[in-house]
Specification:
By secondary structure, the protein is α+β, with helices and mostly antiparallel strands. The chain has helices at residues 25-29, 47-61, 69-82, 147-151, 153-158, 199-208, 221-225, 257-270; strands at 5-8, 11-14, 32-40, 43-44, 87-95, 110-117, 127-133, 163-168, 171-175, 179-184, 187-190, 214-216, 229-234, 238-245, 248-249. It has two domains: 5-117, Aminotransferase class 4, branched-chain amino acid transferase, N-terminal domain (D-amino Acid Aminotransferase, Chain A, domain 1, 2-Layer Sandwich); 127-270, D-amino Acid Aminotransferase, subunit A, domain 2 (D-amino Acid Aminotransferase, Chain A, domain 2, Alpha-Beta Barrel). It binds pyridoxal-5'-phosphate.
């Protein structure tokens, strides 16, 4: 088995030797952020967007990234060199550091990077979602807190769903790890607030404007259930069609025409 190499506070280490003290505030209080992107054939995808978001998340939470952007890019390039997989997923994590009393942030944050090979889900296979009334805390920040969707995994699996669609006060926001678009009368709509600004979402909106009208606005759960197609976007899964939300089935359970088109558009953007 090939060893994977990770990064921790200035050192590149084999994954099994990358260990952190238990006084880390990410572990003790969930105080921390992360970001995730893919590297394909050694090329990080939309890296500047992910670094923008990582820096923005850190700033909002008052965390200090120990390195400037150029240095972060050097670390990432070295990680890619040490982990020569065609498809590599890189997770950058920043925590409140080793707390002196289990609550107060340390003067220095801990910067961790995990690099692991991954495979995409079959893009032609539409997935089922379970609706969940929930609003993430500080939704514009990619925090370490995924407690509610993880706690709800058994209920989700029990109905054969593979992710959630969050709604709050009647409006949909996002999925647990992806953004949501709906299609109605050949027009594309996506929520305008209450979610993490996905990098995939941003690129798709920019690129698809040439071929389809897209509007960012409030979207009700009711409207979503009445939509012609529902689509999710994320760095891990690119563009996936939604086959079903709760009891409502779309396109007889298979991928719709707009979802297919958006998949092609995103692939072009990545190159
Ligand atoms: C809560 C949440 N929303 C949306 C996304 C999709 O963002 P991206 O397209 O940048 O992967 C993610 C995944 O990063 C997420 O965790």
């Amino acid at each position: 088995m090939t060893t994977e190499f990770y990064y921790l506070n200035g050192q590149f280490l084999p994954s099994e030797e990358t260990k952190i003290q238990v006084s880390d505030l990410g572990l003790l209080r969930g105080y921390g952020i992360f970001d995730f992107f893919r590297s394909i054939n050694g090329k990080p995808i939309f890296l500047n967007d992910h670094l923008d978001r990582f820096e923005n998340s850190a700033q909002i939470l008052g965390l200090k990234i120990p390195d400037r952007r150029e240095k972060l890019k050097e670390i990432i390039n070295e990680l890619i060199r040490l982990n020569p997989y065609r498809l590599l997923g890189i997770k950058m994590i920043l925590t409140g550091g080793f707390s002196p009393d289990g609550y107060t942030p340390a003067l220095e944050s801990n910067l961790i990077m995990i690099a692991r090979p991954f495979i995409f889900k079959d893009p032609l296979k539409a997935i089922k979602l379970m609706s969940l009334e929930y609003q993430r805390e500080i939704p514009e920040v990619k925090t370490l807190n995924y407690t509610i969707p993880i706690k709800m995994l058994p209920s989700m699996h029990a109905i054969g769903a593979s992710d959630f669609i969050y709604h709050y006060n009647g409006l949909i926001t996002e999925s647990s790890r992806s953004n949501i678009f709906i299609v109605k009368n050949k027009k594309l709509f996506t929520p305008k607030s209450g979610f993490l600004a996905g990098v995939t979402r941003k690129h798709l909106i920019q690129a698809c404007k040439r071929i389809i009208e897209v509007e960012e606005r409030d979207i009700t759960l009711k409207e979503t259930l009445n939509a012609d197609e529902v689509i999710s976007t994320s760095s891990t899964q690119r563009v996936l069609a939604i086959s079903q939300i709760d009891a409502r089935v779309y396109n007889e359970g298979s991928i719709g025409p707009i979802a297919k088109k958006l998949q092609e558009i995103l692939l072009q953007e990545e190159h």
